[in-house]
């Protein structure tokens, strides 16, 4: 199935490339008289002509042929990169006593084999709890090291070729770098601005980052008095201890309030109430899904069916390893209903609260896709805004997973007790711990994404180590090569900065809501209609300004970071 899908994807890419380099088609569209076109049609024409230019349609025949070769090579490299990550699941094997600290339900789900050992894999449902709760420092280090060397060394070679293809592609079109080419159609506008943004966020977050790292190091020294620094093998574990011991939040207690089925239904209820949507479960025999665990819902707004969603939320062998939303069909008013898929890898039992936040985040993309699926032009349907804005609505929806009144509607333990408001407030305080060093880590990832596409380097791991030293507050873990399984180097190319860029905007948009009543129908309705439902009909900056009544600023983000 995957091999067939890859073959079809190659055909689609070839068709897309051929269309973009079709001089006859370009001549027809370039010769159109735009007089009398409405705003949406004018925007379609402008964007289409821009796409043709960026495809290289106006280059000489030799250049067009080379661009076609590069495009076809790029899709093959992308598929190879993803396949290497997907298939290189690593593991460690431990005696049961080395699982001390792990939640009991996690331990129960990892039986001892015939040799008296337990296998712990690098899949997220294993590695996230293990590095957070396992008391055995060497076992944590061993697993994290395996996790950060997934697809090494195979993907190191693939990445070098991906970067080379992109550099040549941009140069043939007259751009100084791939980052400049890629940024031209984003809010940020230029490659230079990416570097400036990374440095600005780094500066804003440094004081908070160093303060919280010092707390982690002090706690580590209680166990290892001679410790001089703390790295990725210990950060999650000691951050959890600090939250539990100093901030009065026990993640293992918190997770008892989040059984998966309750969270999924709670998410549907919350977003339904917020945006005026109705979710109707579709019987499996009518849904025609690819696996029995996929849940399908029809989506209605004001009594009209506007789309369908599929939730594929648990891990299985060979499945995509991360969390993401995918389109099945982009909606067009009166012609085609929007249809989307959520693919995640959550436990079937109790969820970490971080997983709940992730589910809200990814579901935000799905809501955006469906609500913006009633446009006249498929070009503007769904999550069709500039790429450095698309995360903002999802990041903003995360806020509803942190509100005590919202969580009280579905977060209950097996005794039926609702999660206490004071616990939620403590969780929020605990979550704020580390936001500075998290921002610095994100800027390290963003710098990696940007730098690899702008500067040619013989040794990617050496350059990664240099960038980590400059942007992250944590040292490189010896013997690891995380670039090889950093999937965003393929999908986001030079634009990983977009997560933080959109968070800045998300914090600003969230400031328009009454934090005492996150379901205020007037504000929620304005946000739904002026931002989400518009899709790509207007520039993102204009959508945000229409909703806020002013241009977006860094103020709300800076204030949050300083709290």
Automatic annotation (TrEMBL):
<comment type="similarity">
    <text>Belongs to the peptidase M3 family.</text>
</comment>
<dbReference type="InterPro" id="IPR001567">
    <property type="entry name" value="Pept_M3A_M3B_dom"/>
</dbReference>
<dbReference type="InterPro" id="IPR024077">
    <property type="entry name" value="Neurolysin/TOP_dom2"/>
</dbReference>
<dbReference type="Pfam" id="PF01432">
    <property type="entry name" value="Peptidase_M3"/>
</dbReference>
<dbReference type="InterPro" id="IPR045090">
    <property type="entry name" value="Pept_M3A_M3B"/>
</dbReference>
<keyword id="KW-0479">Metal-binding</keyword>
<keyword id="KW-0862">Zinc</keyword>
<keyword id="KW-0378">Hydrolase</keyword>
<dbReference type="InterPro" id="IPR024079">
    <property type="entry name" value="MetalloPept_cat_dom_sf"/>
</dbReference>
<protein>
    <submittedName>
        <fullName>M3 family metallopeptidase</fullName>
    </submittedName>
</protein>
<feature type="domain" description="Peptidase M3A/M3B catalytic">
    <location>
        <begin position="135"/>
        <end position="557"/>
    </location>
</feature>
<keyword id="KW-0645">Protease</keyword>
<keyword id="KW-0482">Metalloprotease</keyword>
